[in-house]
Amino acid sequence: MFRVMVEVTMRKSRLLHLVFTVFVLLSFVNGGRAGMTSKFIRSEWPSIDIPLDNEAFAVPKGHNAPQQVHITQGDYDGKAVIISWVTPHEPGLSKVWYGTSQNKYDFTAEGKVTNYTFHKYKSGYIHQCLVDGLEYDTKYYYKIGSGDSSREFWFQTPPKVDPDASYKFGIIGDLGQTFNSLSTLEHYMHGEGQTVLFVGDLSYADRYQFNDVGIRWDSWGRFVERSAAYQPWIWSAGNHEIEFMPYMEEVIPFKSYLYRYPTPYLASKSSNPLWYAIRRASAHIIVLSSYSPFVKYTPQWVWLRDELKKVDREKTPWLIVLMHVPMYNSNEAHFMEGESMRSVFESWFIHYKVDVVFAGHVHAYERSYRVSNINYNISSGDRYPVSDKSAPVYITVGDGGNQEGLAGRFRDPQPDYSAFREASYGHSTLEIKNRSHAIYHWNRNDDGKKVPTDSFVLHNQYWGNNLRRRKLKKHNLRGAGGLATTR
Ligand SMILES: [Fe+2]
Question: What's the pTM value of the predicted model, to 2 decimals?
């Protein structure tokens, strides 16, 4: 009996070893030059928005009960959150009760309330409350609203900024509010993602007219609350947030978005909520706006130049950039729309060794090799992207599942810079293990199941350097030796 058990255990461990070896081998294969276009194209549901009376948009019970609750990071390093919610009928209290044990709220924070009009639509009362001075790596419970209409939620603060802090991010883009969107959201929530990096195009409310624009922003707020009330969503804006609608006399770009989805832009000395940076665990995350000026000398250009100088890879080894329009995209949809930003910022990404750039906009999935196209100039030089070890990996995750449907036509042949592409709905996760390694997955929505489809080990661009790796090893050995002698 014992021998049988030992054999089973050994067989299991051999199998595990084999699976791990294949995974590592595959990650090397991915580093090769053979791009792959997956033929798998599936949209589980038609690309139409979920009806407003569906329970996915359920209004919480109680008079004037807070709804559309969502949180985002509230400072530079993760010791604060901004909590937002809407009360539909009256302003009510703009107060958050919070603490570290359930139903026992030792602290309060006072926020502010605002509202806006969009054509003849009048928004509910939008509350925003900064809760700061939090402890790292701690679960907080919070309560908003009053009496029978009050509601309770919780969130977990990140670990202190530290080069080896492990952390799991989810990446979602172009979400919208269809049944495909719901599938993406539910699949993400079944994983263990701790914070969402959102790459633009939130509600697709701009596909509607007149009062329905505001109404669909409200339904989207209730839709994402199931995740966004419990963990921060790091926002970036897309073209569907612009909402330039002169026929309705609405001409202020990003108006609904800016009223509803605050960002901690002042903490990174940005002058505009549309571009900013945060540090979280071992990552420095830079959010850019594809639809604001970024050419030389403009505020976003100046801010990014200064922010990149502040990045300290000894403290935050992982440098991640979010934007809406991809710089490397081989889909017919939105082909080359990212060229203007690429021509301005790509050389900085190479110089500062950005690890990964996440974008959306194209309703399909695509991952690039590490390539750059910075040698081209208008009078001479290479015209084609070349392999570049200092370049980021560019990943497009615009496949959240909105009402515009999938972008199913990729350019043929697949360009050399494109490593893997597939026109299916899904989301990604980036699981940072330590300063040198992270595991990345793209999870396709496949018939109601989350199917990890594209995976690889991401080696850190800063700590992957041989000299630094050797130094770190030496340091660790010295540390281990020191421990041994004190015993
Ligand atoms: Fe877009």
Answer: 0.91
